Amino acid sequence: MTEQYLTVTALTKYIKRKFDTDPHLNRVFVRGEISNFKLHSRGHMYLTIKDDQTRIQSVMFAGNNRSLKFTPENGMKVLISGDVGVFEPYGQYQLYIQQMEPDGIGALYLAFEQLKDKLAKQGYFDQNHKKNIPVYPRHIGVITSPTGAAVRDIITTIKRRYPIVDLTVIPVLVQGVNAADSIVNGIQEANKRADIDILIVGRGGGSIEELWSFNEEKVAQAIFQSVIPIISAVGHETDTTISDFISDLRAPTPTSAAELAVPSQIEIKEKLMNIDRTLTRMITSMYRTSSQQVKRLNQSYAFKYPEQLVNQKEQELDKLVERLNKALHFTIKKKDETLLNANKRLVSQHPRRQIENMNKQIHQLQKQIHYLMVQITEQKSTHIVNMMDKLSLLNPLEIMKRGYAIPYDQKGKIIKSGSQTSKNDLIQVKLLNEILACRVEDIREDETNERE
What we know:
By secondary structure, the protein is an alpha/beta fold.
């Protein structure tokens, strides 16, 4: 009776042979959008090809993708040719890509990139806006769907790791046209409370359409404006949303978010045990060290022979007192000498003494000034007399006293030569006290000058 039941392996192999022998599944041509792209370390490319309704797992081995002229990216629309087959270990069909060409970029992915660039330019992703996550939170708020697997994973993980923390689930829509507004309201309501330390915002995995509410600008602004630190927990590790960039900490999955939000009670207990062992060792070591010190003190000379030690210290004290007295007398003597010298300098610099010295200098200077003034006055007087004698010699009136006269023409100019006048010209001759009006009768050369 049991012979009619197939093993899973046998059934999978049968289905795989059907796929391999079906001519319609060999060399198929598909147009779709790339998501969940992953480049393996060995060079193979693993990705999902999807459209608005369906998606199919795909793989392009390194031997085929070496000839690609471009690098595939999530959201990129492509034209594919390849074969459809079954991957036996997982019993799932997938597309084995032989060739691939770009066919533009998906609308959602383009919108994602545009919003990402916009928010990056506005500084939403800067590290200086990131808030620190409390190490030991008291109350955690979880903003997600109340019925999804994500909330169960988060609650289970938190209660397992850190059961003493309070946990509040704030139910929101995480998919659909009203999801973004619901998430924003959840974040704002949580920020009105003063008892929540951390917010976990997210949902389980899905396509880019299903995760799109976490790529809305209104959600990004709500996360950025939140006073409470936020851990983003959207989708799987390969899923990336705008919320991941803006949140204070990004978790690969909702379960990882719960692990990042709270410490492990096992680790805390281990730390406490390590601290306890460390303190015990330290106390034991200190006790042994102190006991040894006490033992050494009990066996020391001071405790065995206290009177001899006191006498010895008395003698040392007498020597120190004697040295101190000598040093004190020496210091007093030096200070007295210094004071005496200072007093002598003070007496020599006393204002009365300085005034007397200055009065003597002033008196001496007055004598010098008087002597110099007398000399200068005599010198200047002699110089003035000499200058007056010279001026007297050059004075025309003095010359005229000796019988000389000065002729002038009618215009009052002095006649120095006969060429300045003519015969019958009227001239004036200036004597010492009179002026003679004359007429020129004749002009002739002075023969006396020629003989000379």
